[in-house]
Sequence to fold (329 residues):
Amino acid sequence: MLVTGGAGFIGANFVRHLVEHTEARVTVLDKLTYAASPEALTDLPADRVALVTGDIADVATVESLVPAHDAVVHLAAESHNDNSLDDPEPFIRTNVVGTYVLLEAVRKAGARFHHVSTDEVYGDLALDDPKRFTEDTPYRPSSPYSAAKAGSDHLVRAWVRSFGVRATISNCSNNYGPWQHVEKFIPRQITEVLEGRRPRVYGDGRQVRDWIHVEDHSSALLTILERGRIGETYLVGADGERTNLEVVRTLLRLLGRPEDDLEMVADRAGHDQRYAIESGKLRLELGWRPRYDDLDAGLAQTIEWYRTHRGWWGPHKAATEATYAAKGM
Fold:
């Protein structure tokens, strides 16, 4: 199996899930950008996992790897919304051009392909809207990041229909858990508190996100890869809707701090209001269920991981906060 972006947050957790739950031999193709964590792979067996440093938009690299693999799981992506607002170009190159290069390679090789995407392609829902995203929700991306991911989803569907590529797509809600870069919402708040500072919340904090533990996402990906119907899209979620403010207050409580010990800062440009996933198709058709259906329990486990892995996130923390400070965030 070839896993693109396999040294990233979701990718590394998925590779670890494969090693634990299958007998697959895994090649990781990763550009090793700032958000990669090759340390997450170092304790895995060398006869099962190999890391190749390379760019998915590089045709020669991709075409040299894909033919030796039965399946490609495509997780590589530029994924930080704030960064996409500063410079959209890397998001177009990696998320759109890179996906095209991979699709051409799997088309020639006849490999199975699974494309990992995001619920952000659907835009957002109103805070008072009871609906959730489904596989039939129209696309309405609102940032360069989500627009680039929407474009890559459309490419996959076109290659299935036009060329018969054996592909599936999954769109997942917000992930959290071990090995997530400290620029992201939950680990940033956890590490701020661990370093004795007050966490920051954009705007009024009423924006809703649908959270899923990365281990549950990994199990969903393997389920789709093994049992998903070719050409189908599956939404992945664990019914974890919370406002940003509720999440921060929960983290503060779990860390033994007052729930109001936080700071409200100016809102982010184009900040989506609410994401909510309806994952009934995945559950009913493929029998998948999340393990971490209690968000508080998942957050407690995540806090403990960051508490005991300061040596990993510590070197990244100062640079991350300096970047946010320059933006007034």
Observations:
- The mean pLDDT is 95.
- Residues 38 and 111 are 26 Å apart (CA to CA).
- The longest strand covers residues 112-118.
